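Hey, I was hoping to borrow your eyes for a little while. I've dropped the whole record in just underneath, so have a look:

——
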Amino acid sequence: MAENKESTDTASAEEVVSEAYVSDQLAVKVWSVVARDLREGRSTVLLAKSWDAGQEGFVVFPTYADQDPDRIDPDVWMMWRHELKAPLAGHTRLRDFAEVAAVIPITEKKALSALEGEYGVSLVEARRQFAEGEPGLTAVVLRVHRLTRTYRFNDLAAAEANGKPTAELPFDVELDGMEPVIDDDEFEGRLRRIKTAITGEKDVSEEPVERLVATVTDHAEPLSSTYKKYAGILGVLAILTVSMIFIGESSMSGAPQVTLLLLGSAIKASLIIFFFMHLKFEKMGLILTVMIGIFITSILMFVVPAFDATTVLERSLYN
């Protein structure tokens, strides 16, 4: 089997291998946004209509086609939406291996609410999958490991178009030396809570529930934390706007008034840029580029003219 290795900017390498070879290793297709959430250890559960008990692990195969934000958990979508588009060269990168830690049947719809946050799709989508065909789902609890190198799969379009939930790999993935994304103690605790949420049988050794909602009713469900967060930010923006109007119409002296109005404007702009324009969820390089640009612009607008600031301020306020 011929291999060509190319270096990357990171510690990993990408392998491009002849497509004549087909590996025996299983690769399961996962939406790229959900795959990133699994890689970061935020979610641990893959929901499936059925699962082969003999499948003890698989290579995570990120796919990009037909990703619908309405079917993805809002937190997951906002956090990893920059993973939405495939690389321009039309390939995908395989970076993770998922060990199947448990396969648990879900027979009650309310268990999906208790599990919310441990799977990457939205609660509405999980319920749709549950009701589709014969009611029920399978929770595949995954212990995700990061591979020691990145593997490049070139013919992504063909793999996405074949309609299968799996992909054939033209190479073998090296599993030695891979590192789990979640340490043993945290994963065991989350696994116990997942089992409790699904089966309703409380483990006497179970730790306090931090990530799962253990008690759920059919008629009352909590508002998503994402909507609560944005509602709170909207409230802060409204309070700042009213306060700035009050300050602008008050008899406050010039310098303090202008200082407070500039401060309020800066806070409002920061909240809008970071949350409503989603800068908070972008890559650090983009965040730094925007912040450095704002910093330089602020210097040019406020620091450089500071030598003549008193005269300018007096003219703008009293003339």
User: Anything to note?
Assistant: The first helix runs from residue 32 to 39. Strands lie at 3-7, 13-17, 27-31, 45-48, 57-63, 92-106, 137-153, 166-167, 179-180. Confidence is low (pLDDT under 50) at residues 1-19, 204-224. The two ends are 81 Å apart (CA to CA).
